[in-house]
């Protein structure tokens, strides 16, 4: 099967999020003997098994965030697709009417982002982009979301296919960090609430003075017990997941919550504030702890002091992570492709 993917950016230009998922899925489909071409603004990653073709968007338009955001779909729609059996858009398909058979995967919702944005201008931008997402629903033949919560903002979603994790790479290690280590993956600003994590950590240190906080993301500063990791490669990220005693997430909104799934795959317990992604990934608290921000510090401290509880959560999380194996996810998409073209 000859498959055309559409995705704005790819690793290493963008390390996480949708870019990472598209790269993983495309590689796995190639391993399943499919031919995949990704149309993107990024160059071909060194580890890509698939082909990459450039989107014909002029560089002058790419330098302006809003122009790129709202016109990229137009340039995607101008690309000839003769010879492809399936078109799979991972975003920006709101002008791609008649381009098919077409699958559209929604990795969350712009309206969900808008409702939880901390910056009014970002809230406005996301609200406008949500209208494009609605148009994309009409353009696609099959509509997929990565968790049930996305359906709240986007009607007519027909299938739930979660994000994938490479369980051959993301797996438990033999040893944890010698001392208690808390991992936070996300930016300091916005809905990830990294700044709040820094405040939570100070309360944790009052009960566990030897605990350290590892942050992976932009906007953090080194401090007493706080170690910041920026622009790290995937091997380093995996090591941090494996060595951490607890992953802590304070996000107000997640379409899925990939760091939670990756941490569980690496044998690390998860504590999260409530959001739709965490509810799905953690099965409403069955495979991790979901609690309000006011209880986070006490909850994390309790886990740091209780190895039996950590081990039980790690085991439950590891079992849950099997559902997100990228091989399972790729096989599910292949089923959807075949159903669409038969």
Automatic annotation (TrEMBL):
Residues 176-317 form the Glycosyl transferase family domain. Residues 16-167 form the Glycosyltransferase subfamily 4-like N-terminal domain. InterPro entries: Glyco_trans_1 (IPR001296), Glyco_trans_4-like_N (IPR028098), Glycosyltransferase_grp1 (IPR050194). It holds the Pfam family Glyco_transf_4. One of its GO terms (molecular function) is glycosyltransferase activity. This is Glycosyl transferase family 1 domain-containing protein. It comes from Candidatus Raymondbacteria bacterium RIFOXYD12_FULL_49_13. The lineage of its organism: Bacteria, Raymondiibacteriota.
